[in-house]
Every structure is written in C-alpha cells, then in structure tokens.
Amino acid sequence: xxxLIDNGTIALTGLALDATVMRHRxxxxxxxxxxxxxxxxxxxxxxxxxxxxxxxxxxxxxxxQALAALRPQMRLADTGQVSLDTQMxxxxxxxxxxxxxxxxxxxxFAIMSAAIGEGKR
Length: 121
Fold this sequence. Notes:
Number of helices: 4
Number of strands: 2
Helix content: 55-70%
Largest sheet: 2 strands, antiparallel
Order of helices and strands: HEHHEH
Number of domains: 1
Strand order of the largest sheet: 1-2
Oligomer: single chain
Strand content: 5-15%
C-alpha cells in the first residue's frame, strides 16, 4: 500500500534546508575571518551523506530511521584557507539551492492542499 503523504520527501527537504542555512553560517564565518591569521575555513557536509543513503536505500529510497540519523555537519574544509571569490560563488550557489528547495516544498504543500480540498479553490 502506498502512503497518502510521503513524509520522507518533506523530511529530506527540511534537512536540506537546514543544511543550506548552516552553509550560509559557515560562509559568513569564513568571510568574516578571511584575514584572521591561522584561520581555517569551515564547510558543511550533507549532500554526500544523502547520496550514500540513496544508493544504500535501494528503490524505496532512504528509510525513516536513516533519515532520522542524517544531519548536516560543519567541519574544517580540506583547503584550509579562505578565498573570498570562492566564498562569494558558494554563497550565490547556496542561495539558489535554498530558494529551489523552498519552491519544491511549497509545491508539495500545494499538492497536499489540493488533495485535501478535493481540488476546490
């Protein structure tokens, strides 16, 4: 039996939004400390964990238990140093990603609203 509401999609989108917010914080921290001697850049790891879960989850996707364990994490970047140009590009990409996730979530809720209201507006 197929569930009426796929909570996995909403949960994963929520986690992805959390990751974009955390990534914005990391980028802001990197930009603020770009000229600080000895500062090492930070980054957010999330998408690689999602891809690993998707490949391990099979056709049905990640299990609810696997999603519950999935959280974005801030860590030291491999490069270490901060490039302001790179940070600005990452900021623009992250902003677009955040907006796309919000649009997807809004569409999901609009579909659910239409189903609940039987298509009546």
